[in-house]
């Protein structure tokens, strides 16, 4: 049962001018597809060949003999979650239950934005910035490389921003803070965040 590249939830040119079609052609069409291709080669003929992506990630996590499997599988999952975390004409203020949870956990939307931007800016090297639900509250955290909160008991990912350079370098060069601000203000898919909160 080969792992397949999930479809994007938007067209490759619909996030422009914030994220260009060229970036998506490389990031989705080359990087994301590359992780899928690599994982399928690694699991061919193994027990993982019949497992779901989530099962593969959780089974391989922390096993140095399965680092390649984990890294490629987690990168597939993280990227799929990232695409769904964005939407054309996104950003703005959250509504509904997630707005109440953000108010309770961060003292308001501006508090969330500051905390989320800080973990994204200060993630050294490649990685991810997450909004998660944990112990009845929301929190922000970063993970390095392919690490994902999916492997943390009691933690539910709600939103993610990719801060690997390939996510923004064609459009923003080395201006990671500029990319972060645009993601927060123009791209966040709050409906997706609400959906994840309801299943947390």
Describe this structure in words.
The protein is globular and about 50 Å long. The protein has 2 domains: 21-85, Fe,Mn superoxide dismutase (SOD) domain (Helix Hairpins); 97-199, 3-Layer(bab) Sandwich (minor pseudopilin epsh fold). The chain has 200 residues and is of the alpha+beta class. 50% of the residues lie in helices and 12% in strands. A 3-stranded antiparallel sheet has the order 2-1-3. A hairpin with a 2-residue loop joins strand 1 and strand 2 (137-144). InterPro entries: Mn/Fe_SOD, Mn/Fe_SOD_BS, Mn/Fe_SOD_C, Mn/Fe_SOD_N, Mn/Fe_SOD_N_sf, SOD_C_sf. It holds the Pfam family Sod_Fe_C.
What structural keywords apply?
single chain; 200 residues; alpha+beta; Helix Hairpins; minor pseudopilin epsh fold; 2 domains; three-stranded antiparallel sheet; 8 helices; 12% strand
Précis, in short:
Its EC number is 1.15.1.1. The protein has 200 residues and is of the alpha+beta class.
Kindly provide the radius of gyration, computed on alpha-carbon positions and rounded to a whole number of angstroms.
17 Å
N to C succession of SSEs: HHHHHEEEHHH
- Mind telling me the CATH superfamily name of the largest domain? Iron/manganese superoxide dismutase, C-terminal domain
N- to C-terminal distance: 28 Å
CATH class of the largest domain: Alpha Beta
Number of helices: 8
In round numbers, the mean pLDDT is 96
CATH architecture descriptor text of the largest domain:
3-Layer(bab) Sandwich
Q: Based on DSSP secondary structure assignment, what is the total number of beta strands?
A: 3
What is the CATH topology assignment of the largest domain? minor pseudopilin epsh fold
Q: How are the strands of the largest sheet arranged?
A: 2-1-3
Derived from helix and strand composition plus strand pairing, the structural class reads: alpha+beta
- Assembly of the depicted chains: single chain
Largest sheet: 3 strands, antiparallel
Number of separate domains: 2
Helix content: 40-55%
Overall body shape: globular
How much strand content do the residues show?
5-15%
Low-confidence stretches: none
């Amino acid at each position: 049962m080969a792992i397949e590249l999930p479809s994007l939830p938007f067209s490759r040119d619909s996030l422009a001018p914030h994220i260009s079609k060229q970036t998506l052609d490389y990031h989705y069409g080359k990087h994301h597809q590359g992780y899928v291709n690599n994982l399928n080669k690694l699991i061919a003929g193994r027990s993982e060949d019949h497992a779901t992506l989530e099962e593969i990630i959780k089974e391989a996590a922390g096993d140095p003999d399965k680092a390649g499997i984990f890294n490629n599988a987690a990168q597939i999952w993280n990227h799929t979650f990232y695409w769904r975390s964005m939407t054309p004409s996104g950003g703005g203020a959250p509504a509904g239950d997630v707005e109440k949870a953000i108010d309770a956990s961060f003292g308001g939307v501006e508090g969330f934005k500051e905390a989320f931007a800080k973990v994204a800016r200060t993630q050294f090297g490649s990685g991810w910035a997450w909004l998660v639900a944990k112990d009845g509250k929301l929190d922000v955290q970063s993970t390095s490389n392919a690490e994902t909160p999916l492997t943390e008991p009691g933690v539910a990912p709600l939103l993610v921003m990719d801060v690997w350079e390939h996510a923004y370098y064609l459009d923003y060069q080395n201006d990671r803070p500029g990319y972060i601000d645009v993601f927060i203000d123009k791209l966040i898919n709050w409906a997706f965040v609400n959906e994840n909160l309801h299943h947390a």
